[in-house]
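ESCALATION

Customer reports they have been waiting on this structure for their group meeting. Please prioritize. Original submission:
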Amino acid sequence: MLHFIWILYVFCTSNASEYHHSPRIILTEKDIPFRRHSLNGTHTRTELILGPDDGGIYVGGHRTLSYIDFQMPNQSKEVTLFEKECRDKQTTGSCDYDITILHKIKNGTEMFVCGTNGILPVCCQMAQLGSCSSSSAEGMAPFSVKEKAPSLYIEDELYTTANLYAQGDGVGIRRHFGKRGKISSRANKTEQRFVAMAASGPRTDRLQDRIYMFMEEKNLDKHPDSDHWVSRVIQVCKADRGGTKNILERLWTSLMSARLYCGIHFSRLLDVDVLHATNWRDSKVYALFTNPWGMRAVCVYTMGTIDKVFKNSKFKNSAGSAQDVRRRECVKNSQTLPREVLKQMKDYQEMEDWIRPMSDSSPFMVSHRHYRHIRAASVIPHIVLFLSLDSGKVQAVLAETDPPFVIAELQPFRNRTHIQNVLLQPSTNKMYVSTSSEVVELDLLRCTKYGQQCEDCVQARNPYCGWDGTRCTAASNATVQDVMHGNYKVCEEAGKTDEYVAPRTVYSLPLLAEYFLLCPLKSGHAEYSWIHRGRRLECLLAEGHCLLLIENMTAEQEGNYSCVSTEGGYEKTLIQYELRLITDHNQNKPQTTTVSPTSEVPEADRCTKYGQRCKDCVQARDPYCDWNGTQCTAASNNPVQDVEHGNYKVCEEAGKTPRMECSLSLLAKHFLLCPLKSGHAEYSWIHRGRRLECLPGEGHCLLLIENMSAEQEGNYSCMSTEGGHKRTLIQYELRLESRARGLASCALPLIFLLFSLILLN
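Update from on-call: job pushed to the front of the queue and completed.
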């Protein structure tokens, strides 16, 4: 029953806001410059922290610790760690350590670094890229490079969550260094995975400062409707010194845990980021969850809400008297607590109440996209969330709107890759993203691509950007913006709007020529259409463009074509074309050669009733009908039929794949169409042994020939792959003619071919 309710809930919420979950604009390195730094070698894990200067960061990876200065690359440095320690200790393991912990200490003048070679974790304290004096890593650093094990270094104390043993059964919360001494948590038999750690404070009474750990653990409830994993928040007091000799000695006396809730079945915690406020109660926790179906949800909590649960909730499974005995406040010396109090602290640690998110206890955002990391940035008075995707992209989401508004999708990497870490630099509004081989710096104040007009800049709703009267630039008190609503009318009210003149191009085409018009998709939230002679024509969407296919140029296709976008009530002409028909029929006369199907459609052919597939036609066993490659029609001299047995395998033996031959002039524009027969198949084009990407567009796989040349000559095959079965759906042969520019000569056969293929579907 719970599963049904959840599916109904997701259907209602995700469909209503799916439009807004798509990015309004997509930015690649062609649109904005990304600064890159290639890492030496391949790194399984990369730890990132801010450097001493605004333009640099520290990167811990495989064997090395690097300082990368993106402003002055010649100042970048790299050192190899733990080689000396490994040789001195004569360990049997490899000396190739992967850095797993990286912190700045002593006001940033020194660094604390830990790493592991898979057998022995090692830690050291060092001056900035200086000498490294090693120390024991017991309970500090993980044995495995794949163990997340978040840690926190605050006020000369190190809080860790690493596994104590290589076997993986000693996960716990520990404090190292400092005046209050070493302390840890009891062994837990339940499998746990820590995700993040944050300080709750500073509070008015510094004695009450706490540390919060965010984690997930295997659910002990084996009910069929129960989640396999549950997420929790664990709190400890910074002032905790542990208990007495017999009860909780060197163990946390202030440890309490509460269930972290983010909607039905979103029980697995992936990542957490905390945005600290002046008042600690207003600090916000942004948490990324997933469910068994791979969907993602973002929930937002406040430190005040978490604190309220720990202070006011009853303890789970405890008697009424225990509620009064167990203290909720942090104490100066926990070793002086009464024995009865310590016993209650040992026996009862889980709260009865759950920690619920803001906004009516529901997720702020639910998405089918596979987000991996979440980072929150304050752009006063707004909040922007940066969510990394498993494809190597990063989406920027406005965190205060309902439904969520995806401002942009940033694509810093040229190829699909796995993002390992994301770091924000608030002082410079930069973001750093790392993979196994490089680190990229993204400037969040690059605003020019959000629009060349005030209306476009305002509708972008990017808190980092505003219109200054001439361009979209970094926001200031003098710029125009409307982040909450994106109302373009604020431009007119501010007197900063100018009429936009769309670029216009004239093309002269021969009779029956094929052509396509391209219009850039400036906004993923706008609706697009073409206007021709007062009629609105549908837009064919394909990879960042709105296409209009001219399949058969005649006098009716002459005239002006305007590509119009509509968003939030604002209509804008993006580009204009004028098509003219060449009236000299002796020049540029189209020529066509076809090889199957036949040039005419049979009239009232009784054979079509047998079916729209070769298999159906053959199994009809009608001697007067056969399959001609596109339809069941009157028998010919080259029949595909088996009247005696009706064996459909003769279809495969005949291999009747539709084929077209087209003659094109030099630099001509052309398009090849292939029907999408199955929504589960993968489609591509094959040309001269190379696989070309398919442009999906309204039931077809398109291939655009933008400038016909000798390199484009040859055979083109449209291939579908599904369940291991490969199939050639249609073939073309393109030939180059030395005729006038703009000629394309496959119009009429192509129309017939597509008509036949539609019947096949």
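Sent to customer with the following note: Residues 55 and 71 are 6 Å apart (CA to CA).
Escalation resolved.
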